[in-house]
Write a structure and sequence with these properties.
The strands form two sheets. This protein has a seven-stranded parallel β-sheet, with helices on both faces. Strands 2-1-3-4-5 form a five-stranded parallel β-sheet, sandwiched between helices. It folds into two domains: 136 residues, Rossmann fold; 179 residues, Rossmann fold (3-Layer(aba) Sandwich). The longest helix is centred in the last third of the chain and has 21 residues. The two termini are 26 Å apart. Helix 6 packs across helix 8. Helix content is 37%, strand content 16%. By secondary structure, the chain is α/β, with parallel strands linked by helices. The chain has 14 helices and twelve strands.
Length: 331
């Protein structure tokens, strides 16, 4: 019997690589259009003998979060989930491990575009460009009053919270703008890896940074890493940038810090309750917003699909994943 692969989402760029998989496996696609229908399709044996899943970030609209309920409904033949994305907070990694299912993601290929997005948001927030951009579009040129003066990045301290691939890429870019970079991580990196960035404690990062960039993965330990207490430790007029996951920052605490002036401006690509955006973030003129576009380039999207497909192929041919997530390395 040929192995089966369940496709959750769609292939938009790496079509040749995906088509080539048909020589190795039968491709299944769900008919369901919501979570309840998907669970029923699973229970009706619609995906029997599927051993590998290719899933996209957007497929959550059909399946809902990959939690214990979904994982228990999927066939016992399932051994691998290949997630097309660097962040995998949509998937319960512990529930996967409990069922003996290994998970892969797409590290590395997202670093450049996500760091570019962070630089865009940081420069825009530092310069407070959201205000004149709006007045111009409203036909008011610079507005009835002069827009607020911004700040140059040169000489400012950038604090990177989470020095993974994206954080290291951002550090190099920020250094080219003349910024001093400090970082906090679960562990101190070697100088050959960290480059010019200086390791500091979490508290020192909060106290010293002119700009705080959030680059942590979201999990139970990192949710609301930055809340009221942490904002209180920061400099007055600090700039906040988040291209990681919205829930790492307590949004209620953030809007309060913005209203008080503790936080001068913000650049956000991610939001705590996506796709819903906090109303006070939308209405605050000092908040630069994007709808989760960090990897939204042709080159990065294609590279992510290729990497995910390579993991599917590896699972079929070798019974192992190329990019297994850290939590499943010893599974």
């Amino acid at each position: 019997m040929r192995p089966k692969v369940l496709l959750l989402g769609r292939i938009a760029h790496a079509n040749d690589s995906w088509t080539a998989l048909s020589s190795l496996a039968e491709i299944l696609e769900p008919h369901a259009r919501c979570r309840s229908e998907f669970l029923e399709e699973c229970k009706s044996d619609g995906f029997n003998n599927a051993s590998v899943i290719f899933r996209t970030f957007e497929s959550i609209e059909i399946t809902g979060r990959f939690d214990e309920e979904v994982l228990e409904a999927l066939p016992s033949s399932l051994k691998f989930i290949c997630h097309n994305g660097a962040g995998y907070d949509q998937i319960d990694v512990k529930a996967c491990a409990k069922r003996g299912i290994k998970l892969s993601n797409t590290p590395g290929v997202v670093n450049d575009s996500t760091a570019d997005t962070a630089m865009f948001l940081m420069l825009g927030a530092l310069r407070r460009l959201n205000v004149p951009m709006k007045t111009l579009r409203d036909g008011e040129w610079r507005g009835q009053c002069q827009p607020p003066l911004g700040h140059d990045p040169e000489g400012k301290v950038l604090g990177i919270l989470g020095m993974g691939g994206i954080g290291k890429n951002l550090s190099k870019k920020a250094s080219a703008f003349g910024m001093r970079v400090i970082y906090h991580n679960r562990r101190r990196l070697g100088r050959e890896v960290a480059g010019l960035a200086e390791y500091v404690t979490f508290e020192d990062l909060l106290e010293q940074s002119d700009v705080v960039s959030v680059n942590l993965p979201l999990n139970a330990e990192t949710s609301h890493t930055i809340s009221t207490h942490e904002f209180g430790q920061m400099k007055d007029g600090v700039v906040i940038v988040n291209t990681a996951r919205g829930a790492i920052i307590d949004e209620e605490a953030l809007v309060t810090a913005l209203d008080s002036g503790k936080v001068a401006s913000v650049g956000l690509d991610v939001h705590e309750n996506e796709p819903k955006v906090h109303e006070r973030l939308i209405t605050n003129p000092h908040v630069l917003l994007l709808p989760h576009m960090g990897t939204w380039t042709v080159e990065t999207q294609a590279a992510m699909e290729e990497k995910t497909i390579s993991n599917v192929r590896s699972a079929l041919e070798r019974g192992a994943l190329r990019d297994v997530v850290p939590e499943h390395a010893d599974l």
